[in-house]
Structures are given as C-alpha cells and as structure tokens.
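User: Hi! Is it possible to get a structure for several chains at once, not just one? Here's what I have:
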Amino acid sequence: MPVREIAGVQVDVDDEGFMTNPDQWNEEIARVLAAEEGIAELTPGHLQVIKFMRDDFKEKGQPPTIRRMNKVGGIATKDLYEWFPKGPAKKAARISGLGKPQGCV
Amino acid sequence: MSNQIEKVSIVISRGSLEGVYPGLIMANGARMEGIEATLFFTFFGLDAIMEKRINKLKVATVGNPAMHMPTMLGMLPGMSAFATSMMKKEMDKIDIPPVDEFLEMIKDAGADLYACKATVDMFHLTMDDFVPQVDDIINVGKFYEISAGAQIIFT
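Assistant: Yes, the chains can be modeled jointly so their relative placement is included. Here is the combined structure:
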C-alpha cells in the first residue's frame, strides 16, 4: 500500500490518493488535500461537512451519501456542490481522510 | 483527460418506475462526477415530473420477462403495487430517494430539467402540471441546441 507524506505526517493512501486510515488524519492534512482539489481555504461550511462525514463514517463504516449528508447532517445539497465543486461526495470524502464512496448515489 | 465525458443529455421516455430511475441515477451520478447534466422528459416519461403522478409511478409486472413471473400472475390485482413497494423499500436501503426527492436533489446538484413540447401539446399540459424543478417546456430543436457537445443517452 502506498505511503505518502502530507503536512509532515506519513499516511497510508490507496492508488487514487484516498487515505486508508482515517485515524492518521488531521486538519492540516485536510488543508493540503483541499488545496489539491482546488479548494484554497477551508471555510466553516467545509469544516462542518468534514466533521459530519467523519462522525458518520465512525458510526456507519462508509462515507455518507449526498442524501444522507442532507437528511441526517442538515447540509443543503446546493451548498455541498458550491463548497466542493465538481464531485462533492468524492472530494469531501478524500479531504476528510476517508475512502472513496462506493455507492451509485 | 481529453477523453473524459463533460456533458450528458439524458432522455427519459418511459413512465414506469423502472423506466424512470435509471435516467435519474445517471443524471445524478453525472453531477456527482462534475459532469454537466440535462434531463429531457418525453412521452410517458412526463409522468415523472407531473405533480399528481410523480409519486404514483409503478413497476410494470406484465410484459417484462425479467420479472421472472408468469404474465397471468403479473396481471393479478395488486401485483404491480406489491412489486413497486418491494423495489422502493430496497432502493431506500441503498439511499436512492423517492422520485420527487430525487428530482429536488438533481436540481440542487445543478442539472437542468425540461419537458418535451410535442408531448405536452399532445396531453394538453402546461407548466402548472409539473413540479417546480422543471425549467421549461422545449421542442426537439431546442433540445439539440442545449445538448451541443453532450453525449445523448436515451432511456
């Protein structure tokens, strides 16, 4: 399994650059990953999404769907697309240190 | 990178539950991948955007060999309703929303939704018959105009 250094930390990643161990994640890493996705700054909105995704992952063992982020996390779908343009579920999961979402919705 | 799909236009022409969902899932999936998406509802596909029919779509149990059920059985009263409720239950488990909520989600995701003018005229409908997510009623010429540079998918 590939290992890369992000923000001074050695983290396990998969072939597509998704972290495979969420426990190695911290907010500094999130900032670096966000920048790689074209998100220059993590706003309170981004951080709210990241927090929900990580909490939900702990409970469910998989990154939440967009619907779940809306229904359970109270995050409007429009906001999600605005904050994480071009692929919100995937980008947000990657920045949150989670694996790639596997569902179709 | 240049081989990536950047834009899709998805035509939904059928009004059964199993006829509508694939197009919706593909449109939503496109937006999730950052692909521009347009939905065009035509013929019985219009049921999926009609206020009074949107949540009454049914699975067709007759004339569908993949149901693995004798045609005569599929004709029995309640069979279609039963198959429909089974399918909805399973879809909910994997977080696929009901059609009305799905349209909201797809619209919020930035897709555009259109109704086919020929069908609208044929069925004597107006914008008032449709859910608010529908942007406009357009003719086929306009559909091609909007679809410039897109992959067109007919379902």
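The radius of gyration of chain A is 13 Å. The first strand of chain A starts at residue 3 and ends at 6.

User: Great, thank you!
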